[in-house]
Amino acid sequence: MDGKGAHLAFKSRWRKTDEELCRHSMSFILHKAIRTDFFQSYLYLLERLPLVKLYALTSEVINGEMQFYARAKHFYREVPATEEGMMGDYIELSSTDIESSREFLRKFIGGPGKAGTECALDCGSGIGRVTKHVLLPVFKSVELVDMMENFLAEAQNYLQGKKDRVKMYYCYSLQEFTPAPQKYDVIWIQWVSGYLTDKDLLEFLIRCQNGLKDNGIVILKDNVAREGCIMDPLDSSVIRDLSILQSLVEKSGFTILQQERQEGFPEQCVPVWMLAMQKDPGLP
Ligand SMILES: C[S@@+](CC[C@H](N)C(=O)[O-])C[C@H]1O[C@@H](n2cnc3c(N)ncnc32)[C@H](O)[C@@H]1O
To answer: Does any ligand 1 atom lie closer than 6 A to the CB of residue 192?
Structure first.
């Protein structure tokens, strides 16, 4: 179709208007409202583009950011601080998950140009299932960050015997957490990215870049929708499709080194993917 791609011209024109209009003026407010409505109908009717791909804005499905986060916290208050709790109803998949994670991680660590094995950060760690089975066998020290205090408290029992190599337990929500600068060889983000809005996930990934040592990597492992962005009201999370995740990762300035689908999970489960990413060497 002739019009295909014309939205790019509209986009750059509008960006210009955004910059030039006074942000508090009525014309700016009107311009924004018209732009959103017009642009979305235009894309849908003329270019047949699924809106969610261009507007990977979780705010469209979340309906209220504060409530989105509050509901997730409410959900986790009822979740037991056990491996079963961390795996939802799928404890039987834990060993397959761990085995694949270990294999995937091995590709990016040790040796010239690869990530080191000094220190890793487990994000959305829960009680430390990933720390225990995937990270501690490889890294000299590991740090945990999770929003639930009781999970981190339990982590200290659960990781007993290896406690001296677990250096820090940060009780923070990822949207408010900044990894210490240039500290980590690997930052692992598993089954937690869906609890962050697009904007917060994007900003968190940007902060992670600063937390990485040279050759450091981030590994993000999560459920991936077959298409679009699906809201799960039960635990107040979203499941993004692969193209949305990729676009967020790339927008943050990371380059995807490799992505791999988790194998060995039942067909009826939502697909799970692992994405390894590294800071663009051109960036400061
Ligand atoms: C499904 S569990 C996964 C735990 C662990 N990553 C694993 O694979 O065993 C999700 C974890 O994410 C944490 N979480 C959810 N939203 C979070 C947020 N906004 N910031 C930090 N942690 C969060 C929960 O407290 C919970 O421990």
So the answer is: yes
